[in-house]
């Protein structure tokens, strides 16, 4: 299975891996994802210098609603089935077409989570006891993700 990473070059600022389907299945109606969100600004949840939410799950891709969903990211479905991604035409049944729609679906209705993990590299991190926070060494978030989920930051 091939993964495509979309996000900041520094994973501490957030990013998402999308698991690509087989090339003969560009119309599948879901995407498997692993998403990292910089959650340091979560109001009142945690006292920490750094905090990330890592979610693994799937994104539902209802192709019959593609026009509405693509509009969330400023893209549009063309009459011939191609996607106009802000002037960049993505031909139907290609990796780029599928990835654009998967990204739009994540923005539109989020991730159906299988698992979520809260991670901090602040050893003094204190949560409000409604969830656990894994403490890692400072500067090792990319290594932690590689060890836990097998995803490499490009």
Write up what this structure looks like.
The protein has helices at residues 66-71, 95-109, 141-149; strands at 3-7, 15-19, 30-38, 46-47, 52-60, 75-77, 83-85, 88-90, 112-120, 126-127, 133-135. The strands form three sheets. A six-stranded mixed beta sheet has the order 1-2-3-5-9-11. A three-stranded antiparallel beta sheet has the order 6-7-8. Strands 4-10 form a two-stranded antiparallel sheet. The model has no long low-confidence stretch (mean pLDDT 87). Helices cover 19% and strands 34% of the residues. It has one domain (3-149). The protein has 154 residues and is of the alpha+beta class.
List keywords for this structure.
single chain; 19% helix; 34% strand; six-stranded mixed β-sheet; alpha+beta; 154 residues; three-stranded antiparallel β-sheet
Task: Provide a concise account of the structure shown.
This protein is an alpha+beta fold. It is built from three helices and eleven strands; from the N terminus they run E-E-E-E-E-H-E-E-E-H-E-E-E-H.
Which secondary structure elements does this structure contain, and how are they paired or packed?
Layout: E1 3-7, E2 15-19, E3 30-38, E4 46-47, E5 52-60, H1 66-71, E6 75-77, E7 83-85, E8 88-90, H2 95-109, E9 112-120, E10 126-127, E11 133-135, H3 141-149
Parallel strand pairs: 9-11
Antiparallel strand pairs: 1-2, 2-3, 3-5, 4-10, 5-9, 6-7, 7-8
Distance between the termini: 16 Å
Q: What is the domain tally?
A: 1
Largest sheet properties: 6 strands, mixed
Radius of gyration: 17 Å
Specify the structural class. alpha+beta
Low-confidence parts lasting 5 or more residues at pLDDT below 50? none
Provide the succession of SSEs.
Answer: EEEEEHEEEHEEEH
Strand count = 11
Strand arrangement within the widest β-sheet reads 1-2-3-5-9-11
Helical segment tally?
3
Average of the residue pLDDT scores: 87
Q: Note the quaternary state here.
A: single chain
What proportion of the residues form beta strands (DSSP E)?
25-35%
Helix percent band: 10-25%
Rough outline = elongated
